[in-house]
Fold this protein.
Amino acid sequence: MDNYANANRGAGNGNGDGDGHQNHQMPQHFLQYPLRPWNVMFTMTRQQLALMYVTWAAARVRVHQQVYEPALPLPPNPPPLIWPDELHAMMVLWIAREHRMFEMEVRELEYLLGLREHRF
């Protein structure tokens, strides 16, 4: 026995199809273009950004040592700093933006060198 059949009939979007979709169309906010890296604003201080670049340089040194001189022992990692939640979120966004910018630069380099047919 299905006691919930009548109670659930027409539930969802109110158009009577009961499947929760509006005539199988996606909401408009899902169809908007994602933000480009240059549209993102960061509220990190100069000191925080400087710390990010210094830490990035240290990461590059460690990676280059692992790749080019794997026999050498890596220096010990300092303990990670404790960041407030808002600053932690800004750092995650900043790193994602820099990662995207690097990918775009490499694609452009491949295009300019003739290794790729289309830019993007």
Notes: Residues 1-17 have pLDDT under 50 and may be disordered.
